[in-house]
Amino acid sequence: MNEAHVTTASSETSESGDVRAILKERARALARPIAAHAQSATRSVVVFSLGGERYALETQHVFSVTRLCDVFPLPGAAPHVLGLTSVQGELLVVFDLRVLMGTARPARTDATRMLVLGKKHAELAVIADAVHDVQSLSDSDLFASPTSAAEGEMQWLAAVTREAVSVFDASALLSDPRLYVDEASAGALP
């Protein structure tokens, strides 16, 4: 009877040793750095101000940032159309998104810039009160846009950062029909 008890005790010790080895291996596997997991996608954005708020656009849709130069008004154009300008020999329509978003329109200053935007080529320009910097954002830095955003602006917003920078959906912005001017909407001259 005593031998049976000793045999059972040694087999229990060997089983508990196997369990401990398995648990140690699991603990090592779980203790690996998070970097081993897939990294979230990153994007480069240009951060700028409009009416006291900060916004961002992916740099792949920004062809250039220039000083606000001469803008020639278009007769009969909508209030958000500032006019025509020439950027590197190309005529572009300049838009003021602040009008469409219903935000303040501070006076032009030395910091006022034009962002030349487009999908494959320069399509239009938008005015910015100031351009701050270029940043790299990862998907983990972005949160869903608040539902309280103005309705006109909401269709362009893709996300917001922890620093309260609203990130534009450049594709939605560039496909908005209000950002294109044709002869009928610009009050064609006779």
Would you mind describing this structure in some detail?
This protein has two domains: 2-36; 42-179, CheA-289, Domain 4 (OB fold (Dihydrolipoamide Acetyltransferase, E2P), Beta Barrel). The chain is built from four helices and eleven strands; from the N terminus they run αβββββαββββαββα. With 190 residues, it is of the alpha+beta class. A hairpin with a 2-residue loop joins strand 4 and strand 5. The strands form two sheets. Strands 8-1-2-11-10-9 form a six-stranded mixed sheet. Strands 3-6-7-5-4 form a five-stranded mixed sheet, with no helix packed on it. 23% of the residues lie in helices and 33% in strands. The longest helix has 29 residues, at 2-30.
State the fourth-level CATH superfamily of the largest domain: CheA-289, Domain 4
Structural shape: elongated
Query: Strand count, sense and closure of the main sheet?
Result: 6 strands, mixed
CATH arch. level architecture of the largest domain: Beta Barrel
Strand content: 25-35%
The share of residues in helices is 10-25%
Report low-confidence residues grouped into runs of 5 or more.
Answer: 34-38, 185-190
**Count of individual domains:** 2
Order of helices and strands: HEEEEEHEEEEHEEH
Name the strands of the widest sheet in spatial order: 8-1-2-11-10-9
The gyration radius over C-alpha positions equals 29 Å
Number of alpha- plus pi-helical segments: 4
What structural class do you assign from the helix and strand content? alpha+beta
In the CATH scheme, the class of the largest domain would be Mainly Beta
Q: Say what the CATH topology of the largest domain is.
A: OB fold (Dihydrolipoamide Acetyltransferase, E2P)
Q: What do the pLDDT scores average to?
A: 80
Number of strands: 11
- End-to-end distance, in Å? 116 Å
